[in-house]
């Protein structure tokens, strides 16, 4: 039973080019061998890396238990990132609010969302108070279920610092933090930015390349395919530059069993055709949750 209760964390770092920093982050994870990194997705244009970390969940102990392998691994990785990455030097075509931009916990197998939320709350407290970085929580980790999208909009996440080049560069504006964070200092200090920590059911991250440099047209497509823009339910999307000659519609599929990648791709193809544009095949930035469980189990068995 215990082995079938797993928790997963997706940890997004605003860096993909600093090899020394990434090696330090991955060494920190290896200090906790019961937690396994099942996927690393680096994107040098976005200057962003996503780690998927999985561990067993012990139902007989409190979700806030400091002995949780996943909690210890994630905290160690966050600490290493904050010690080795300077947000002032960051530049990329993907939005971010901090060195550690986003942390999300998901229940896997027979674990519950409440258990994943317990881990998220505990990690958020430790980051805010022990590492002294303003930390905000969302989803099941928030008492009113505040959404990630809402927090990001409040922080100005979707507004590039260089509108002409559609780039996000340097630290956040001093006035970006409009309200008191859930944990940690009430003001932005240093060059670490803000950390957002949440818990939700599994989310698929799915990107669709569009063969154009017309970023405004791609932003229109992203807006129309998203639920917020009147498009597909449970789909969030944004249009981003992705290299000198390409753009992407980057999507979060909040309930992939209801609205999946194939449906999203067909809708983007239709909208792109209306703009006179062509799209390439979409791709996932992570494995499916079933594959993640399989990879973790195989890794544990082999060790």
Automatic annotation (TrEMBL):
SUPFAM superfamilies: Formiminotransferase domain of formiminotransferase-cyclodeaminase. The keyword Transferase applies. It comes from Dioscorea cayennensis subsp. rotundata. This is glutamate formimidoyltransferase. Keywords: Transferase. Signal peptide: none annotated. Pfam families: FTCD_N. It is an enzyme of class 2 (transferase).
């Amino acid at each position: 039973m215990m082995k079938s209760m797993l928790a997963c964390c997706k940890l997004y770092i605003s860096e993909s080019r600093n090899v020394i920093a990434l090696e330090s982050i991955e060494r920190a994870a290896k200090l906790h061998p019961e937690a396994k990194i099942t996927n690393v997705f680096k994107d040098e244009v976005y200057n962003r890396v996503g780690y998927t970390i999985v561990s067993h969940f012990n139902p007989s102990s409190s979700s806030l238990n400091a002995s949780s392998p996943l909690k210890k691994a994630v905290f160690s990785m966050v600490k290493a990132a904050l010690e080795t990455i300077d947000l002032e030097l960051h530049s990329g075509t993907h939005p971010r609010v901090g060195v550690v931009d986003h942390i999300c916990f998901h229940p896997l197998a027979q674990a519950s969302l409440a258990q994943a939320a317990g881990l998220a709350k505990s990690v958020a407290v430790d980051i805010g108070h022990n590492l002294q970085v303003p930390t905000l929580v969302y989803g099941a980790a928030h008492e009113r279920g505040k959404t990630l999208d809402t927090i990001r909009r409040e922080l100005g996440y979707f507004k590039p610092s260089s509108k002409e080049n559609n780039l996000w560069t340097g630290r956040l504006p001093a006035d970006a933090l409009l309200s008191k964070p859930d944990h940690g200092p009430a003001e932005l200090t240093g060059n670490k930015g803000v950390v957002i920590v949440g818990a939700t059911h599994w989310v698929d991250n799915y990107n669709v390349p569009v063969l154009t440099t017309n970023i405004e047209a791609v932003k229109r497509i992203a807006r129309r395919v998203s639920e917020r823009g009147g498009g597909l339910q449970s789909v969030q999307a944004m249009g981003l530059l992705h290299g000198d000659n390409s753009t992407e519609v980057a999507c979060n599929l909040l309930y992939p069993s209801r609205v999946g990648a194939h449906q999203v791709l067909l809708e983007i193809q239709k909208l792109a055709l209306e703009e006179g544009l062509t799209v390439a095949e979409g791709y996932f930035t992570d494995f499916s949750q079933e594959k993640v469980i399989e990879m973790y189990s195989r890794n544990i068995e082999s060790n």
